[in-house]
């Protein structure tokens, strides 16, 4: 099978700061690094490094060839990434010594992907393949609907969170992942708790406390504790977790095994500075000792 990812591609500009800035505050950064990023790119790299065949559907600007080359280097199929007139998306990320971060995002070309392009690409998808989206691109609803029509397993990572965006794709979802705050916001918007959503599998990530999986078809809820590690940068950890879960699903792993591998990958990720460029591969994840 394959994972089709309608996903964002960004240049992540990561600044090391003494603390996260408050309103009106000017801070001197002690360092700057540029990484390949975007929730979509991160998930594609994570799933590819976990052993899946990943086909990325996305867009960059005229200056974004480096991002396509980097994704290709990391094992992602990039044939469906368009070069558009809009600038490549980019994020300004401030990271404080404890690993917490603040992000300012310019969507750029990510929001210029046409539904027609997505539709033409998904004609090559086969029943049983996975389709994943995040709320950083255009054409999410059209992709979700077409994915369901073509017999794909339709997955949604609900970030950056917008309750209406989730509600718009909810009728076509098989898998939904969101964090605890987002789950509360979605409950306020829909009146439904995670176990009541019309989605077969819902995962709520709990940060340093781990994650909870809801198998709504069986009515089962399972908690997975996080591994205790010293975090230096939480950027991209959630995307790494999601990519590994999706890869586990794609490779036919039972959900508990897929989530456990994803927890290990996320634990390694928070011990590293950077985003897509430093996502661990499956060999590292399996060999890690916590």
What is the fold's blueprint, element by element?
Blueprint: E1 3-6, E2 10-16, E3 31-37, H1 39-49, E4 54-60, H2 65-73, E5 77-83, E6 89-95, E7 101-106, H3 115-122, E8 130-134, H4 140-149, E9 153-157, H5 163-169, E10 175-179, H6 180-190, E11 201-205, E12 211-215, E13 220-224, H7 237-250, H8 255-269, H9 282-287
Parallel strand pairs: 1-4, 1-8, 2-6, 4-5, 8-9, 9-10, 10-11
Antiparallel strand pairs: 2-3, 6-7, 11-12, 12-13
User: Could you say what the CATH architecture is?
Assistant: 3-Layer(aba) Sandwich
Largest sheet: 9 strands, mixed
The first-to-last residue Cα distance is 31 Å
> CATH fold name, please?
UDP-N-acetylmuramoyl-L-alanine:D-glutamate ligase
Average the pLDDT over all residues and give the rounded result: 95
Give unreliable regions as ranges. none
List SSEs in N-to-C order. EEEHEHEEEHEHEHEHEEEHHH
Total domain count: 1
The percent of residues in helical segments reads 25-40%
CATH structural class: Alpha Beta
Number of strands: 13
Estimated share of beta-strand residues: 25-35%
Inertia-based shape? globular
CATH homology group = Ribokinase
Which sequence of strands runs across the widest sheet? 5-4-1-8-9-10-11-12-13
Alpha-beta classification: alpha/beta
Radius of gyration: 18 Å
The DSSP helix count reads: 9
